[in-house]
Each structure stands twice: as C-alpha cells, then as structure tokens.
Write a structure and sequence with these properties.
This protein is mainly alpha-helical. The chain is built from 16 helices and no strands.
Length: 305
C-alpha cells in the first residue's frame, strides 16, 4: 500500500476507523435503554442530548487512543513484524508514522478524551472522574500488559461492555438497573468475539512472541467453539429484555446470531492465514448488527406499547 509518511491517510489508517463500531455499540444500547426507561417513568425523565453526544465522542476518542497505543507498543515490542504479520498493516511497523509523532498523538488523544469526558461530571457526579481515569489507565495497560498476560478478554468485557453501557445509562437516569447490567455483559461478550478472531488468526506469531492470549492457552479448536459460544450466550442473556417489556430486543438479534454462525463456519473452513481478515471484518459488521438490532428492539417495543 502506497502511504506517505505522516500523511492524513496514514493517520486514518492508524486510527482504524472500522474498530469504532465496537466503541459505538455499547453507547447505543445504553442510550436506547435510558431513553426508553426515562420516557416510561416521569420520575427519571431526564434524557438529554448533550451527555449522549459526549458519551459517544469519549468512546470514539478512547478507542482511537487505544489503537495508537497498540500500534506503538506492539511495534516497539517487536510483535508487529511487517514480514510475518497476518493482520491489517500497522502504521509504525510500516513506517507510515514515526515513533515520535505517534507518542505525541497518544498524548493529544488522551488529553482530548479527558476534556470531552470531564463535562459528564455535571450529569453523573464526581465518581465519573474515577471511571474516566480507569478508562485511560487500562487503555495503556491493555496493550502493555493485559493482552500479553491473556487477560485482554476480561478488559473487553469490562471496558466494552460493563462500563460504557451502564455508565451511559447512569448519566441519563441517575441509576443502574438489572436490565442495563445484564445488557452490558452481553454486549461485552459480543464485542469480545472481535478480539477472539484477531487472536485466533495470530495464534502462532503470538505464541512465538510470548503473548499468552486465551487462544494460545486453550488451542485452536476450543477457541473456535468459544467464539461461537460468545454470540450464543449473549443472545440467551437477552431474555432479560423480555422480563422488562423489551421483547423486540430479544427477538431481533436473531439476525445477528445467524450472521455470527455464518462467520464461525467460515473461520472453521479457513483455519489459518490472512484470509481470516475477511472474518475479522464480518465480525465487526456482526457487532454493529447486534447493537443496531438490540437498540431498535428496545425503542420499537417502547413505541409499540
């Protein structure tokens, strides 16, 4: 790929825009639940557009920040070798962005995320400062420690499920319900599928680099079954929506599940190599479909009742 060093195209590629679906989906679900519950209960009718936009922007910027950190650290660690890498090309490894400029970009995106997230304190209270600090800290720890220790999946569950869904809901309503909590965990499982396929593709190079991901630990066959189960369990957890009157949010994600199973079958056929990048793209699409169907299902049930 012909990319000029430190060009606009180089920075777009480094930001990995396709990964932003993983940042958007938890916020979408949290907002849909908050809007529905606030509309049904006059006591919690405090839904506001500005904090909704701020939550979405914070999620986007933190995702880009995490991508920059991952790009830089894996290059310095030697994990992203341009000769052996199977995944999409990375900016530092390809020489599209210099190390110095990437460090500066990380500092700027971290600062911007903090500035965007700070006004949320006026809606959710000072405790959101602690949440924001934890997001920043674990943004760095994910690549520098947890992913190499095989704990990346746990962080995905927490920071792409539990935290963004419940905190988005909390900012709008001032509380966290059992439905929002279960929905956040289901969302984390769905998004973790993206990490699973990424690690499944890179299992051999990760093993050589000393990166002890769950895929490396449990093996390829068990990893494939785990990938399938992530989507199945997430959809089964959606039964909580029925108990709270959002029955469409349980039914519509069947569309996601069919796509998820199809991608799983393709992974089993491909098994190795760069061809798995197609399944990676499909998984990102599936995640967005899940978020869209759940969100529409929540809103549709509310409008139909």
């Amino acid at each position: 790929m012909d990319v000029k060093k430190d060009s606009f195209k180089a920075w777009i590629l480094a930001a990995r825009p396709k990964t932003l679906t993983g940042a958007a989906v938890p916020v979408m679900i949290g907002l849909a639940l908050a809007w529905s519950d606030a509309s049904r209960s006059p006591l919690t009718s405090r839904f506001s557009l500005l904090p909704a936009v701020l939550c979405l922007l914070f999620a986007f910027i933190m995702q880009i920040d995490a991508n920059f950190v991952n790009d830089l650290y894996d290059y310095l660690k030697g994990t992203d070798d341009r000769e052996t890498r199977l995944g999409p090309e990375r900016a530092c490894a390809q020489g599209w962005v210099s190390v110095g400029h990437m460090k500066l970009a990380i500092a700027l995106t971290t600062l911007t995320a903090c500035l965007v997230g700070l006004p949320l304190v006026f809606y959710g209270g000072w405790q959101l400062v602690i949440v924001g600090v934890l997001c920043v800290v674990f943004c760095f720890l994910y690549t520098t420690y947890f992913s190499y220790a095989g704990l990346g999946d746990l962080l995905v569950l927490v920071f792409f499920g539990l935290v963004p869904v419940t905190m988005t809901y909390y900012v709008q309503t001032g509380t966290v319900t059992a439905e929002a909590l279960v929905a956040s965990l289901a969302c984390g499982l769905v998004i973790d599928a993206l990490l699973f396929i990424n690690n499944f593709r890179d299992r051999d190079t990760d093993r050589e680099a000393g990166k002890r991901t769950i895929v490396v630990r449990i093996g390829a066959e068990a990893s494939l079954r785990s990938y399938l189960c992530l989507g199945l369990v997430a959809c089964l957890m959606g039964v909580v929506f029925i108990f709270h009157g959002h029955w469409c949010a349980f039914v519509l994600p069947v569309i996601y599940l069919l796509l998820h199973v199809q991608t799983y079958r393709e992974m089993r056929q491909i098994w190795l190599g760069k061809a798995l990048n197609r399944c990676l793209g499909e998984t990102a699409r599936n995640i967005f479909v899940y978020g869209l169907t759940v969100s529409i299902g929540i809103l549709a049930t509310h409008l139909l009742t």
